[in-house]
Write a structure and sequence with these properties.
The complex is a heterodimer of chains A (227) and B (128). Chain A folds into two domains: 30 residues, no CATH class; 195 residues, Cytochrome c oxidase, subunit III, four-helix bundle (Four Helix Bundle (Hemerythrin (Met), subunit A), Up-down Bundle), CATH 1.20.120.80. Chain A is mainly alpha-helical and 227 residues long. Chain A contains eight helices and no strands. In chain A, helix 5 packs antiparallel against helix 6 and helix 5 runs antiparallel to helix 8. Chain B is mainly α and 128 residues long. Chain B has four helices and no strands. The longest helix of chain B has 36 residues. The mean pLDDT of chain B is 86. The chains are: A mainly alpha (227), B mainly alpha (128).
């Protein structure tokens, strides 16, 4: 299809555009294929995380043992003071939000062709992500070694607490870890100038994955830690 | 495609959304910090969660500016999941109801806190 014909099609917005895009025998999504595929992957990942969160909902509703009080379990005291409820989780939340902000800026500077800023902003995002994983390691080791929480039981109440906790935060932590590696890989390729010809959509695609990881944490923070 | 066709927006909007996400996170943490309980806790936590998720998807992930064909592909399938959540809630309430009714558990039991376990008195070993 010629460039003019594509522009002609893309001009319609809204519902007319929707009908145009889905009509037969032509390209539906007017985005780079890598971006469309990343979105389809993210939609499938949404289903996986929703299965976990729905299992958690079901387990928490059906257990007859009292559910442990998260705000006390995840409290932390500094310098021998009173424990502050959920403080570590709050810090982790702010770190992920910060990393989402630097990632959004990286995408923007990528499209402006500013390789240096894109590279450093992606490195900053990866550093935030790595510190998030570090805090999660701290949280896990505290729960496992000091509190004796196990996937099959814990000293507080419903034994399912540990199973849900390790499953959901572990799967999310694995996503963050993969994201850090992916971001660094793309960042160094940007720095080497490998996308000068192809364009910087790859930064946006990596950004979509990273924002998704942040998005999942928003739901975990609300449903697992706060409610 | 050339790099000029991508999502290009003024930086200001990213900064504003970034600050807004911080404020919303602080608000949801405040709900726990000031120990709001009951229906108000659910309402506030879920409202702040949905606002945060909405801004991340719409602005940071650019869905707001995407064509409807892509936006619907992204947003329509997950709405089916609401049905799954509704079914599991109904089923879960039924299961827990029968368990309390026939298995003699105490519906008002309270979970132990770390203070109960690491407190001054030596903790008793409890078998589950």
């Amino acid at each position: 299809m010629s460039e003019i014909a594509v522009n002609e099609l893309v001009r319609h917005g809204g519902l007319d555009g929707l009908a145009d895009d889905w009509s037969a025998d032509k390209q539906t999504y007017h985005v780079p294929w890598g971006k469309a595929m990343m979105w389809i992957f993210l939609v499938s990942d949404t289903f996986i995380f929703t299965c976990f969160l729905t299992s958690y909902l079901h387990v928490r509703l059906t257990t007859t043992e009292p559910w442990p009080v998260q705000s006390e379990i995840f409290a932390l005291s500094f310098g021998g003071g009173d424990p502050i409820p959920l403080i570590l989780i709050a810090i982790m939340t702010f770190i992920l939000i910060s990393s989402s902000g630097t990632m959004a800026l990286a995408v923007n500077f990528g499209y402006r062709g500013d390789k240096v800023k894109t590279f450093w902003l992606m490195c900053a995002t990866a550093a935030f992500g790595a510190s998030f994983v570090g805090m999660q390691v701290f949280e896990w080791s505290k729960l496992i070694l000091e509190e004796g929480v196990r996937p099959w039981g814990n000293p507080y109440g419903a034994p399912q607490f540990g199973a849900v906790f390790f499953m959901i935060t572990g799967f999310h932590g694995a996503h963050v870890t993969v994201g850090v590696i992916y971001l660094l890989w793309v960042a160094f390729r940007v720095k080497r100038g490998l996308y000068d010809e192809k364009g910087y959509e790859i930064v946006e695609i990596a950004g979509l994955y990273w924002h998704f990881v942040d998005l999942v944490w928003v739901f975990i923070f609300a449903f697992f830690y706060l409610l | 495609m050339s790099s000029t066709t991508g999502q290009q927006h003024p930086l200001g909007i990213y900064y504003r959304i970034w600050v807004l996400l911080f404020v919303l996170s602080a608000c949801s943490y405040a709900v726990d910090f000031f120990n709001v309980q009951g229906g108000m806790r659910w309402f506030l936590v879920i409202m702040f969660m949905l606002l945060k998720a909405g801004f991340i998807v719409a602005i940071f992930m650019h869905v707001f500016w995407e064509r409807l064909a892509l936006a619907f592909t992204i947003l329509a399938p997950p709405t089916v999941l609401l049905l799954l959540i509704a079914f599991m809630t109904i089923e879960g309430n039924y299961t827990s109801g029968t368990r309390y009714l026939y298995m003699g558990h105490d519906p008002n039991a309270v979970a132990l806190s770390p203070d109960d376990i690491h407190g001054a008195e030596p903790a008793e070993e409890e078998e589950h």
